[in-house]
Design brief:
mainly beta, 36% strand, pectin lyase activity, carbohydrate metabolism, Pectate Lyase C-like, Pec_lyase, pectin lyase
């Protein structure tokens, strides 16, 4: 049986349920069965070179991080032409200029940019890895993780931060591409230049993102208001993503943006203080959003979304019973400029059959998520 309530997951973790040495709890939702490094002897890197070596090799690994690993300056700095996008209306007061990633600057005003070279490329993580932080000590500064070309990876209790936050295209914290069975749990991301979490365009397949904190607080903002725009991007082909118990705050967009043919089950999350939009759903993505709390979110759902079941009321939510095994939970929205209760498409609900999670009432979600999401809260 797999549990979706963050409080229940934490309680079981304290009782000693482990998927692998060093890992607390076990993967649930679409990533159920992920074991990471299994029962491999834990290793304790003491330098960035040693950490990179463990992450990228072909051996099953349980990698315990009990200190900060600072990549800033390790590859020098780069000065080159970037650009000032139209969104940067406050260049002298915290706006984001852009590195020319993917030729993004074509046709925009050129400016010189100087950035930390390490931040724009991620560490490629091999298959069968558990990367687990100890207490609140595990910080990866100035470098993201890219899980690619493999499968069966657990990232737990790690804080990834300071990836050229002043620049769009400054770096992504967690990237998933061409992979399968990935569990991201009790992770915090902050001060990221581009995406906090990105999956796609190639398939990421079965993924669970749980009990994690997406902290968009920043001094450099595409929206010029100290809220990060580029939060979560899920664009994989036929990906199945369980997104549960997470705390997404101080963002202004892409929280998340969902496309490709992704199936996303967003359950019992807490969105707080979003000055733009939360969900941005393209025509081929299928999303269930239930038992969530949104507080002070300007636009919970961008216009144009088609395939969303927003669990609007008890009557409509009964449609969940056959495919999911329970009646979906109503979302709670407060101090929002609009709601998404009219989005109640049910035609795709059967695609979520067998996920193995059960939502709880949204009544205590804000408190439980803030108490359990992020690092040092296992």
């Amino acid at each position: 049986m797999h549990f979706s309530n963050p409080l229940l997951v934490s309680a079981l973790a304290c009782a000693g349920s482990v998927a692998a040495a060093g890992v607390v709890g076990e993967a649930f939702g679409f990533a159920a069965g992920t074991t990471g490094g299994g029962d491999a002897e834990p290793v304790y890197p003491t330098s960035i070179d040693e950490l990179t070596g463990y992450l990228t090799d072909s051996e099953p690994r349980v990698i315990i991080l009990d200190q900060e690993f600072n990549y800033i300056g390790s590859e020098g700095t780069t000065t080159e032409d970037g650009c000032r996008p139209d969104s940067n209306t406050c260049p002298d007061n915290g706006g984001q200029d852009a590195i020319n990633g993917a030729n993004w600057c074509d046709g925009q005003t050129a400016v010189s940019v100087t950035y930390d070279t390490a931040g724009v490329t991620s560490i490629d993580v091999g298959s069968n890895k558990s990367i687990v932080g100890s207490g609140t000590s595990a910080v990866i500064r100035g470098k993201g993780l890219r899980i690619t070309g493999g499968s069966n990876v657990i990232v737990q209790n790690i804080h990834i931060t300071e990836l050229n936050p002043q620049y769009i295209w400054g770096g992504d914290a967690l990237t998933l591409v061409d992979t399968d069975l990935v569990w991201i749990d009790h992770v915090k991301t902050s001060l990221i230049g581009r995406q906090h979490i990105v999956a796609g365009y190639d398939a990421s397949n079965r993924v669970t993102i749980s009990n994690s904190e997406i902290d968009g607080s920043t001094s450099w903002s595409a929206s010029c208001d100290e809220h990060h725009y580029w939060a979560i991007l899920l664009l994989g082909e036929a990906d199945k993503v369980t997104f549960q118990g997470n705390y997404i705050h101080h963002t202004s967009g892409r929280s998340p943006k969902v496309g490709g043919t992704t199936l996303l089950h967003a359950v019992n999350n807490f969105w707080y203080d979003n000055t733009g939009h939360a969900f941005d759903i393209s025509e081929n993505a299928n999303v269930i959003a239930e038992g969530n709390v949104m507080q002070s979110v300007k636009t919970p759902l961008n216009e144009g979304a088609e395939l969303l079941f927003s669990a609007p009321d008890d009557s409509a939510n009964a449609a969940c019973q056959d495919p999911l095994g329970y009646v979906c939970e109503v979302n709670v929205l407060t101090d929002c400029d609009s709601d998404f209760s009219s989005a109640a498409v049910t035609s795709f609900l059967s695609s979520f059959e067998g996920e193995g999670v059960t939502a709880t009432s949204a009544s205590d979600v804000a408190n439980s998520v803030k108490a359990n999401a992020g690092v040092g809260k296992l």
